Amino acid sequence: MLTWSQCSAVERLPGKVSGVWLFRGTRVPVKALFENLESGATVENFLEWFPGVTRGQVEAVLEHAQRSLVEA
User: Fold this and answer.
1) What's the domain count of the chain?
2) Is the pTM of this model over 0.85?
3) Contact assessment for residue 32 and residue 41, using Cβ atoms and an 8 Å cutoff
4) Is the dihedral of CA 55, 21, 67, 37 positive or negative?
5) Which residues span the domain enclosing 17?
6) Which pLDDT tens digit goes with each residue over 22-50?
7) CATH number at residue 18
8) Which residues pair with 49 in a beta bridge?
9) Residues of 8-20 as b/e, b for ≥16 C-beta within 10 angstroms?
């Protein structure tokens, strides 16, 4: 099971963007990364479209998601 609370690149704050998981320090939902990748965007595209998100954050989120699949 994917537990975002264990990923340091994200945060969830009540009242901020309806309490969804966000890239830390931004208002960009983590879900936006996966939706864009599923639609054919590259990580480079995503970073260009959401300049507040860092490459390190994207890599941490993808690694966290990958680890959760391996552990499942």
Assistant:
1) 1
2) yes
3) no
4) negative
5) 4-71
6) 999 999 999 999 999 999 999 999 999 99
7) 1.10.10.10
8) none
9) ebbbeeeeeeeee
Ramachandran area for residue 17 (φ above 0: left; ψ -120 to 50: alpha; else beta): left
Query: What's the rounded Cα separation, in Å, for the pair 46 and 6?
Result: 23
CB atoms within 10 A of CB 62: 15
Cα–Cα distance, 9 to 64 (Å, whole number): 10
Q: Encode the chain in three state secondary structure.
A: CCCHHHCCCEECCCCCHHHCCEECCCCCEHHHHHHHHHCCCCHHHHHHHCCCCCHHHHHHHHHHHHHHHHHC
- What the block records as the tokens of 24 is 């830390």
